[in-house]
Design goal:
By secondary structure, the protein is mainly α. It has 10 helices and 5 strands; from the N terminus they run H-H-E-E-H-H-H-E-H-H-E-E-H-H-H. The N and C termini lie far apart (75 Å).
Length: 243
């Protein structure tokens, strides 16, 4: 159980039951540094609280978005050490509202059914280069991004070299990561910071989730529009120079 103040009073078995994971998973996360250590009580029994529950919920959400444990570890290391259970709940809400559709593991037959056509080995290599599919250890199974599949299949007929696709993807990933970092910094300093000062507000998490959901389409549209305009300008200059 937990007290009204949220003090750590859960045993590891109770924490596992609340979070829907196994005790073994909790101990593993603890050894990896993904969970803070428990408070040691009488008879050397470890006790856990709301912060641990919130951290486990965040880890689960990040895993649903396809992040590996190593990536999750790096992500959690960047979070402030004084985050409350409420702050972690906000992080989880933000991750869920901004994340794209979850990736799926499908057989080759199912992948071809969704693609609407047969896929050769070269086709699969090109889709993998675009980040649409990923090869798994089981050669008969692929991890697919449903949101990109239709676009990837359409691009299979475009005469672009495999190496060019890889180079273009690298450029896009690097620059979008820079933009995401700057937008995250702005959101953290100008939006999340003021809301943290109102942490006692019972609708705090719901308000942040609603705000994030409204911002997401605006930011995505702004990024797309800015990229389209910049690309148009660069192409115009490039072909003018060639002329």
């Amino acid at each position: 159980m937990t007290t009204d103040t949220g003090e750590p009073t859960l045993t590891v078995d109770e924490l596992a039951a609340r979070a829907g994971v196994t005790v073994r998973t909790i101990r593993f996360y603890s050894t990896k540094g993904l969970l803070p250590p428990p408070v040691i009580g009488p008879r050397r029994v470890g006790h856990y609280g709301r912060d641990h529950l919130s951290r486990l919920a965040l880890i689960e959400e990040l895993q649903h978005q396809g992040m590996t444990l190593s990536a999750i570890e790096r992500y959690l290391e960047q979070l402030p050490t004084d985050l409350s259970a409420n702050d972690l709940a906000i992080h989880r809400a933000l991750v869920a509202s901004w994340a794209p559709d979850a990736e799926e593991d499908v057989t080759r037959a199912e992948l071809e059914r969704r693609a609407g056509r047969a896929l050769s080995g070269e086709d699969l290599d090109r889709l993998a280069a675009m980040g649409v599919v990923a090869y798994l250890e089981d050669s008969a199974t692929f991890r697919v991004d449903p949101g990109l599949l239709r676009l990837g299949v359409e691009l299979l007929g475009v005469p672009i070299a495999h190496e060019t696709i890889l180079a273009a993807r690298t450029v896009l990933v690097e620059h979008t990561r820079d933009a995401a970092q700057e937008l995250t910094r702005l959101f953290r300093d100008e939006v999340w910071g003021p809301y943290r000062e109102r942490e006692s507000d019972p609708e705090h998490v719901a308000a942040m989730k609603s705000l994030s959901a409204h911002m997401q389409p605006m930011v995505v549209q702004a990024l797309v529009t800015a990229f389209q305009r910049s690309l148009k300008e660069q192409l115009r200059e490039a072909f003018r120079a060639e002329g």
